[in-house]
Amino acid sequence: MTDLKLFNSLTRQIEPFVPVHAGEARVYSCGPTVYNYPHIGNMRAYVFADILGRTLSWKGYKLNHVINITDVGHLTDDGDAGEDKMEKMAAEKAQSIWDIAKHYTEAYWADVKALNIRQPAHWSVATDYIDDMIAFAESIAEKHCYELDSGLYFDVSTVEDYGRLAGRHEQDQLAEDAEAHMRIDPVKDKRNPADFAIWRKTPPGETRQMEWDSPWGKGAPGWHLECSVMGGKLLGFPFDIHTGGIDHREIHHPNEIAQNQAFCSCGGLSEATNSGAKIWMHNNFLVERSGKMSKSSGEFLRLQLLIDKGYHPLAYRMMCLQAHYRSELEFSWEGLDAALVRLKRMVMAVERVNTKALPAQLDVAAAVESRLMRFGEAVADDLNTSVALTLLEGTLDAQIGHATVLEMVREMDSVLGLNLLNLTRADLRIRPKAATITEAEIDDALDRRKEARATKDFATSDAIRDELAARGVEVMDGDPLGWEWKLG
Fold first, then answer.
1. How many Cβ atoms sit within 10 Å of the Cβ of residue 100?
2. Which residues are CB-neighbours of 110 under 8 A, at least 6 positions away?
């Protein structure tokens, strides 16, 4: 089996995956801040992390995957400015911050399930680790931190190579931040513009819903501290892979790395393990030109909106798989339509294999070995899912016998996660939320239309088609997939 190679954002190179602990893969993925519903761009990160985890499992590694839930500490500006996102939403909704966290965590988990993303070994909730965060901060405070009226700050000049993950050398990073600092200084008296809070004090006269006593006064942890603590606590430093969206590569992850270096008393980042993880991986953005993925826009693009419009959520997973995780993916309804059609074709191909015995080639073993080898090469090449999808489609069309095809589909789909052996055509026909007609009514109308067409009563046939169109049903005469109708 081809060795797995992955792109390391820290070194900007494709590198062979060599686990820290033989036979085991330890992975940490930055999870959501549960102050609002995740949009589909957010969910691309978890489809990517799922493909990574499935690939590691398929390669035979025992996977220990952690995804965190941030329920405290994430400010409205990632650079230590603004309000706590959770406190802000709780105030807007006039609800308990704990209720806000519970509601949006469950909404996120529902999207995870709908996208057929596997459960990690641990869902680590930030507020479960407050004591560990305080202990971590205490252990690095003397050498690496300083206290201001607003909190405890990490001095980035105390670690080597700060900002290397973002593609900038330390001095360049500090110079750029100093220039930005001249334009806006959100925190008075910081030593370096890039310094960041690892503990934020509750301002005098205020009371937060989430606050704890600490050596630096009552307050709450900083967002960056949480991930360092939970990653180290649950996986141990160094662990194998840290994942997240490409937006984390600029501020959040460089700050995590600085904390890890301080905690482990490590040197510079020429040695990747000094960062806390051997490999850092980032998926690129999902681009949506209308701006409807912004959560400030009201009804933004979340998975439930796609379902409400009649799209099965796995059509979005298919859309993600069609592009490499490191490339930008542009969202459009036309693109989602195409992804759904491709998924339908695969589901129908599986149904054909199930209902029609295929003649086997003379050398089935050689055909299977060749296809699985090429599939393995694709996913081992930095998770090249677009090529892997094409190989799966070719397998469904191959004349290599019923049982063999199904077993190969099961093998390949264990990595791609499209649930092909369980999905049916009926599953993929999602009724839009706005539809007022039932499927039973549609089926009855179509039966009457077939009878009319059989007797060449085209006037009645056209009238039934127009009646259905008026109620939002498009009759798909001549559809090569034989789908018959769709709701618009």
1. 24
2. none
Single pTM value for the model: 0.90
By C-alpha distance, which of 314, 395, 60, 406 is closest to 387? Answer: 395
Residue 45 phi, psi (nearest 5):
-60, -35
Cα–Cα distance measured from residue 335 to residue 287, given in angstroms and rounded to the nearest whole number = 12
CA angle 304, 309, 312 (to 5 degrees): 65
Cis peptide before 16 (omega within 30 of 0): no
Alpha carbons 328 and 322: distance in angstroms, whole number: 11
E-only strand ranges, 294-369: 329-330
pLDDT surpassing 90 at residue 333: yes
Report the chain's mean pLDDT, rounded to a whole number: 90
pLDDT in tens, 20-53: 999 999 999 999 999 999 999 999 999 999 999 9
Q: Would the pLDDT of 170 be above 50? A: no
Q: How far apart are CA 156 and CA 196, in angstroms?
A: 8
DSSP 172: H
Cβ contact 114:423 at 8 Å? no
Instruction: Show contacts of 87-91: CB within 8 Å, 24+ apart.
Output: 87/208, 87/209, 87/210, 88/35, 89/35, 89/36, 90/209
* Centroid of chain to Cα 443: 38
22-26, 73-77, 247-251: range with lowest mean pLDDT: 73-77
Q: Where are the alpha helices (DSSP H) in 184-273?
A: 223-235, 252-264
Model confidence at 411, in pLDDT bands (50, 70, 90)? Answer: very high
Radius of gyration of the chain (CA): 26
The DSSP element (H or E) to which 314 belongs, if any, is helix 313-321
For the sheet containing 196-201, what is the strand order? 145-148, 151-154, 196-201, 219-221
pLDDT of 356-365, one tens digit each? 655 555 466 7
